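sorry for the late reply, my laptop died twice this morning and i had to redo everyting from scratch. anyway the thing you sent over, i finally got around to it. pasting the sequence first so we're on the same page, its 328 residues, then the predicted structure underneath. double check i copied it right bc i was rushing
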Amino acid sequence: MPVQITIIGLGQVGASIGLALSKNTEKVFITGHDKEYGAEQSAKKLGAVHATNHNLPSSVENADIIILAIPVHQIRQTFEHIKQDVKKDVVLIDLSLVKSEVSKWVKEILPAYCHYVGLVPSIGVNYFDKMPTLQNQPQPDLFSKSIFLLSTHAGTPGEAIKLATDLVNLLGASVVLTDFVESDGLVASAYLLPQLLSASLLNATIEQAGWQEAQKIASAEYFGAVSAFTEGDHAEALTSLSFQNRENLIRALERVIYSLVEFRDDLENKDETSFTENLKVAQQGRTAWLDEKIKGEWGVLEEKIEKTSIIESLFGSAMSKRFKSKDK
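ok and here's the structure:
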């Protein structure tokens, strides 16, 4: 019998995961749900899901795995809507960027027999220069050679962690184990900070005198620098993420402010040597980072718990045998 997977949120991330998994038609059955009916129909037409269910509670009632690919400000309400309908030993995989707060909501709202695994995805390097033009288009290899951060509660069954890890591997990516606090710290620097810098650059230019003329020559450099901050409901989502990761983000912003002050002081002091050196350090850092991303040789998760692979336990045997936890 196929494993039942429900993907909640059928934007680029959710639909891309669906595209990567849905080809296993004899092994998985994927149901998609999105608050936008059009997104559901689009995902089904693309083949990212096998069926859709616009009723949120009923979309999860038979799910063995629930994947949440929605903004963090929608998660708490989603938990409230599904808490009475999730089945025993369901594995709930959350892809939001803030884990400490979400993990508290899991404990507060969801039943104890729901096994929570938090993942923070990153796209593969092959799509870095394509993202501004993809317009949220799903891609089956969107996460190829990328890293997912994985964090979970103490006591989560090893089978649930292994299942989430193997799902990530099926996407062509690898897992790095973290805790909730560490995950949020890494996200503040690698995800949230670039978006706030884009917003800051926009605010520092579009409302200033001379922008009416400057915008005429703003080109690829400007577009690249502001592309981390996008349209739609992004402002609301970024606000929620930023305030839930407030302390880490404040520290990250302070480091950027310090770096900008160094450039300003070098200019003010006419110190070309220091200014050039700071630019070279940045160039070298970018090159080293991008080289590592292109190689994608991050290693694999060291297996310290002997468990059957997802192909065996998920796609070969009954889900009821995978967990041995007791009702609480």
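Residues 280 and 286 are 10 Å apart (CA to CA).
thats about all i looked at so far, will dig more tmrw
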